[in-house]
Amino acid sequence: MQDKKIRKVLLIVMLLAIVASLLLTGIAPLMSM
């Protein structure tokens, strides 16, 4: 039970990191313009 919860949290964190990096790479060019 504990391992599944930890795995789910890790997946969510990884997804958030990917989304954050995509947003940053998408916003950075707009800011530099």
Record field, number of beta strands: 0
Radius of gyration: 14 Å
Any idea what the shape is? Answer: rod-shaped
Overall average residue pLDDT: 90
Which helices and strands, and how do they pair?
Blueprint: H1 2-32
Short structural summary:
94% of the residues lie in helices and 0% in strands. The protein contains 1 helix and no strands. The radius of gyration is 14 Å and the shape is rod-shaped.
Descriptive notes:
This protein has 33 residues and is mostly helical. It has one helix and no strands. It has one helix at 2-32. The protein is rod-shaped.
Features:
33 residues, mainly alpha, 0% strand, transmembrane helix, Prli42-like
